[in-house]
Every structure is written in structure tokens, then in C-alpha cells.
Amino acid sequence: MIINQWVPAAHRGDAVGDSARRVRDLVRALGHQSELYALTIDDDLKHDVRPFSDPAARRGDLTIFHFALPSPMTSAFASLSGGRILQYHNVTPAAFFAPYDPALFRLAALGREDLSTLVGHVELALGDSDFNRRELETLGFEPTGVFPIAIDTSRVTNPVARPALERLLDDELVNFLFVGRIAPNKKIEDHIRLAEHYKRYVDAYYRFIFVGRYDVVPGYYATIRALMSEFRLLNDRFVFTGPIPDEELAVYYRHAAVYISLSEHEGFCVPLLEAMAADVPVLAYAAAAVPDTLGGAGVQFAPKNLEYAAELLGTLTFDDDVRAQVIAGQRRRLADFGDARITRDLANVIHQLS
To answer: For residue 353, what pLDDT is reported?
Structure first.
């Protein structure tokens, strides 16, 4: 059987594209032919991902379409004669972008409109979390199911040496980590407010590290910087790295005391799994797909009381017994995302539609 996948853009380090390449390898291991096709392909992936213009892209017995943004792939997917599986990775609600970027607001709104055109044109609609599955169901897709992102955690667990970076991180400050784009749904402003509470009530020796692009929504990043000035926080206690290679990402995870997620909209949130794989305790606001991904692991809280969150952060940082218990729970949860489970679920989906 030929089981192909479509993804609008194949970028190394992007969770959707990386997952699709991993799923392709697992499909091949099950004895099927499988290729990944994309509209946009990074130069270093052109040997591994095929262009969507290749006529073979439309010849799959089953085609899995990874949807996260509007693209010409959507209408082409609806017209396929073979089996069609939609894998939905979520579209950030447009309202988050309204105060900062009209173009991103429009793109997000178009994304949901584009998704709705596939209702009635797929044999199976999968969310990578139950949160996403429920959204598909609300839109009218049926049948629906859950198929999680296939993540290779070795990029944050492989031993690497970056002596200069390690010396910078190994000082008297405690490192708190966030990984992802600096975007409005991530609520980075709440990290700044959390830092103010933590400094005031728990400990003054801290450093908040944000790994990921901060130029996606410039107006939002400017708002974050303005809030730091309003609170008169020290700039050197807040590190915005921009994009970094995997080797440096592994160092940041290794030197983090706690991973913090205060996001108010996530479709899955891969960094939660990376933090668990790196044995970094997770403190997370329990919103959107975050409870689905953590599955009871980490330390989750709601409502969003940041003064209470600062107390939790202090406990996770300094109470060794609590840290050990949280890490043990995270290790158990991480096993649910291993290749054995992904392969079993994949085989079930193929059997269901073959």
C-alpha cells in the first residue's frame, strides 16, 4: 500500500514537519511505501522530502494531510480519489493577533475557513490531541480520533558540550525555561508578571529564558519589553535567544530548573514532552490541549493566579522531594508517546481504512 503525507512546509525543527517525517519512517517499517510531500522545503531537507508538484503526490492509496495553515493543498486534498486522513494540528484563534498584526489575524481567520471546507471530504479526521479532536467534531467532521505528534526527543537528550554556554548558565541564578515562538497565545506577558511575583515573594536570584523566534509578531514583542520596563525588571534576567541549533537547545533544557508554560491556546505543545524527556519539572497553566498532553503529569494549575504560580515555582525549584515525584510522574507519562504506542495507533488507522 502507498501511504503518503502532505505538509504545507517542511522546516527542520518544526514540530509538524518533524513528526510527519518520523511517521513516514514508521509507516515504511510496517511494510508500506511512503513519501512526504511539501510546498516549501528547507534546502537541507530536499533529499528527504519531495516537492508537492511531483505527480506521485496524488497517487497514494491513503494520504495523510497535516493541516495547520491555509494552503493550495486543501482543495487538492478534497479532490483525491484515494483514502483521505486529515491530521489537524490546530490554528491559533485570530483574536489573539487582533491587537498586534492584521495580516496574522486574517491568516488565522482564513485557516479556520479553509479547514471547514474539508468537512464531508475525508474518511477520517484526527486531532493530535483530544482538544483538537473536539474542535473537529464541533465543525462537523466524522468520524474523528486522536493521533499524537510523533516526537524524537533525542534532540534534547543527546549529550552535547557547549562549554561557553554552560558557563553562562552555571552561575548563581536559577534558570526558568520556555521554548516556542514569542506569540500572543503563549502569554509571555504572564511570564513577566510571574517573574515580578517570584522576585517579590520567593527569590531574587532567577533568570527567565525564552528560546524561539521573537520576530514573528514584532508589536507583541515590543509590548513584552515595555512591560519589563514598567516593572523595572533587570534586562539581564530575561534572555530571548531567537532560533538556535538543537545542540544549544539541549544545553538550555539541561540547565533549566523548571519549564514554564502559561499559554492560553495550544493544540499539543511539543516542548512539554521535551521538558519531560530532559527531566525538567513542568509548571503549566491548564488550558486548551495542555492537560491532554501532560495527562496528569507535571504541576498544573487553574485559574491563572500568578501569585499562587510563583509559590508553586518556588516549591518545584527548591523542594527536592517534590521535584523527584514530579519527574517520576513525567517519565511515566512520556512512555505514552513512545514509538511502540505510535506504531500501534498507526497500524490501527491503516487497518481501519484499508
So the answer is: 87
| Residue ranges of E strands in 11-81 | 36-41, 50-51, 62-67
Distance CA 203, CA 129 (A): 36
The rounded distance, in Å, linking the Cα atoms of 34 and 351 is 16
Query: Which among 343, 346, 345, 335 has a CA at the least distance from the CA of 153?
Result: 335
Q: How far is CA 216 from the centre of its chain?
A: 16
Helices in the chain by DSSP H: which ranges? Answer: 15-29, 73-78, 102-116, 130-139, 154-157, 163-169, 188-201, 218-230, 246-254, 270-277, 290-294, 306-318, 320-334, 339-353
C-alpha cell at 185: 497565545
Cβ 246 vs Cβ 236: under 8 Å: no
Phi, psi dihedral angles at 80 (to 5 degrees): -65, 150
Tell me the C-alpha to C-alpha distance, in Å, between residue 11 and each of 1, 40, 115, 143: 27, 8, 22, 30
Residues in the chain: 354
pLDDT in tens, 102-154: 999 999 999 999 999 999 999 999 999 999 999 999 999 999 999 999 988 98
pTM of the model: 0.96
- 109: amino acid identity, one letter: A
The predicted-structure confidence for 285-334, as pLDDT tens digits, reads as follows: 999 999 999 999 999 999 999 999 999 999 999 999 999 999 999 999 99
